[in-house]
Amino acid sequence: MRVLDGVYQIKTPSPGDGSWQTNAYLVEGGDGHILIDTGWDSQEALWALQEGIKGANVKLRDIKKVVVTHIHPDHYGLSAKIKQICGAEVAIHRIDAGLIFSRYKDFDDLLQQMGELLRQNGVPEDELSQLREASLWMNKYVTTDEPEEQLEDGDTISNDSFEFEVLWTPGHSPGHLCLYERERKFIISGDHVLYDTTPHVSVNPHSGDNPLGDYVSSLKKLARLRVNFVLPGHGPVFNALGLRIDQILQHHENRKRDILKSLSNGLKTAYGVARDIRWTAAKGGIAFQDLAIWDRRMAVTETLAHLKHLMEEDRVANVDMQGGSLYIAKD
Ligand SMILES: [Zn+2]
Ligand SMILES: [Zn+2]
């Protein structure tokens, strides 16, 4: 589907769940076409991508570059296969490039670190292995390869028709990037800003210490840009970027308020706090114990991200005990 002059949005399906789709973007150019994000490595996604590219009257072999906004399987997954098919160069931010193999190939260390992190944050032994391994199934929908190009904040990517500025926007992943077309005033935002979903921000072995702090700074960086259209990694194209950023910031403030409330009556682990919170944006939310395994892990690691942010703001104190990290509200 053409979303702007020379820019096409192609929806690719997720494994098992057709309702959750990833948006890839095809950007036409006199000096070769650019594909931004690819979808999961599945036949269905490759098929959808091929049909979308055909619909734009472009041939797969004319794609000269694939830019990946971040390392997650729904964006990075198919990139190596696209390269095999058409020889396109794959470009990704340097930090996410450095995490590809330890995440998807030799992931024993990562699993062990994830297990330690969950245990340290209060996940009980009988839930631990389930939560630790909750994302392993995704690996079969990713083909890894060394990217040809490692991008940095401020780099430019052009194809004679469009010129994109690489904006490093860490938070959702440590090497997340957005692509800004300054002249035409649109931004390809990956998972950094979505229309109706709040991007997941969690503490994990790859995230750095304060990913929510990084995320909030990255959001504020975008708020200063002149943008007429946001082309996100999921959901519809939208405008009013500033308004959406305000809503997302407000969501995190509300969550921090819930967390402070949970901590007001004494020391708790991140797991203990996550159990007190109503999850998802559904009316009234869902209780922690009713969440699916993967969502439960996200709830714990996301709670931890908020706790770290609250510590940075000096509103929460932390003490590491043997067998668990405990948090308490300061005010
Ligand atoms: Zn993502
Ligand atoms: Zn995504």
What does this structure look like?
- With 331 residues, the chain is of the alpha/beta class.
- 36% of the residues lie in helices and 21% in strands.
- The protein has a domain at 2-104 and 138-247: Metallo-beta-lactamase, Chain A.
- It has helices spanning 43-55, 73-76, 79-86, 94-97, 100-104, 108-120, 125-132, 211-223, 241-263, 270-276, 293-312, and strands at residues 2-4, 7-13, 21-27, 33-36, 63-68, 89-93, 149-151, 156-158, 163-168, 177-181, 186-190, 229-232, 316-321, 324-329.
- The chain has a seven-stranded mixed beta sheet. The protein has a five-stranded mixed beta sheet with strand order 8-9-10-11-12, with no helix packed on it.
- Strand 13 and strand 14 (324-329) form a beta hairpin.
- The model has no long low-confidence stretch (mean pLDDT 95).
- Residues 70, 72, 172, 191 line the site of one zinc ion.
Radius of gyration: 20 Å
CATH fold topology of the domain at 2-104 and 138-247 = Metallo-beta-lactamase, Chain A
Low-confidence stretches: none
Tell me the fraction of residues in β-strands, as a range.
15-25%
Shape: globular
Amount of helix? 25-40%
